[in-house]
Write a structure and sequence with these properties.
Shape: flat
Largest sheet: 4 strands, antiparallel
Distance between the termini: 102 Å
Radius of gyration: 32 Å
Number of domains: 3
Number of strands: 7
Number of helices: 8
Helix content: 40-55%
Length: 323
């Protein structure tokens, strides 16, 4: 664990020491000047495996306070799970949770009529009616993701804790992707006014549900990455990793936009993409022409108001002034 101490606002110079008051807690370095980036390690062999967490203390003595500060360190030590639990129970529970969530999402997609145009696109399967194809497909994908999540679960995490983490992360991704899909569809509908009429009144709901159905994928990947043991993290992350994160976010946004456009095209095959593109182009062109006219009118008004009025007025010619 990395423990960071920084100087607050204002003038002054920070220095001091950090000393462990528990034999199973070690901190390095123990003294600092200006800032502290210390590595705190715990010797778990010296801690008994109990239901209650073990608590240690680190004493922080700095020139910022008159009395030393006590920092509490709480550690939970768990026994290693049996091979049966790690390789049988946890993957099976992941299959049950992932498959159940996938079936519920597929039933929601079917109830919204999302698979109305898919009757002739899937072959007839034994024991599965056409109305059950989409729930079964989404449930199968969810079961595979749940199995992978359970197989790679951190051995130190209890099963109930890891399951609740995955469910919470999935619900958060569902809300975010549903909102992103709805916003993307709203933008596409504004650019292509003919698409909402061809896709149907439920198209925004379809796109939101499609985004929610994709939530188990990033949630499972995130849980698998979080469950890996990374050891002591580097204080300064590699710049390439930061760039890859930004690339991943941009790619995700593009994928949501492609999902919104592709779903409209896939589930409304009667729509003509060429006509929609032409109408969208005309809409954008009309909007740009309107903005250009407003800008030119504003320019003419400014010229009349501030330039023409400064000019010397010409004398009015009357019959009396003629020679």
């Amino acid at each position: 664990m990395i423990w960071r101490i920084r100087r607050g606002r204002g003038r002054g110079y920070l220095h001091g020491t950090a000393i462990s008051r528990s034999p199973w807690v070690h901190i390095d370095p123990g003294s600092f000047e200006k800032d502290l980036d210390a590595t705190v390690t715990v010797v778990t062999e010296a801690i008994a495996i109990t239901e209650q967490p073990a608590k240690g203390r680190i004493q922080l003595d700095t020139n910022a306070t008159e009395q030393p500060l006590e920092v509490e360190v709480t550690v939970n030590v768990r026994s290693m799970p049996s091979p049966f639990e790690a390789r049988i129970v946890r993957p099976l529970l992941g299959i049950f949770l992932g498959g159940g969530l996938g079936v519920l999402l597929g039933m929601g997609l079917h109830a919204a009529g999302l698979d109305a145009g898919l009757a002739g696109r899937f072959p007839s399967l034994p024991l599965i009616s056409p109305a059950q194809v989409l729930p079964a497909l989404v449930g199968l994908v969810g079961a595979v993701l749940g199995f992978l999540r359970g197989w790679h679960q951190n051995w130190a995490w209890p099963t109930w804790y890891a399951s609740l983490r995955w469910i919470g992360r999935t619900l958060a991704w569902m809300a975010g992707l549903a909102l992103a899909g709805w916003l993307a569809y709203t933008l596409v509908a504004w650019l292509f006014p003919s698409l909402p009429a061809r896709a149907g009144a439920n198209a925004p709901l379809w796109v939101a549900l499609l985004g929610a159905a994709l939530a188990p994928v990033p949630a499972s990947i995130g849980e698998i990455r979080a469950s890996r043991f990374h050891g002591v993290r580097r204080l300064d992350p590699h710049p390439v990793r930061k760039q890859m994160r930004w690339v991943a976010w941009v790619a995700g946004a593009i994928a949501i936009l492609v999902l919104a456009v592709g779903s409209v095209r896939f589930f409304a095959p009667s729509g003509s993409l060429g006509e929609a593109a032409e109408i969208g182009y005309n809409t954008v062109e009309t909007w740009m022409d309107r903005g250009e006219r407003k800008l030119l009118d504003w320019r003419d008004d400014v010229l009349i108001r501030y330039h023409d009025r400064r000019a010397t007025p010409m004398p009015t010619v009357t019959p009396d002034t003629l020679p």
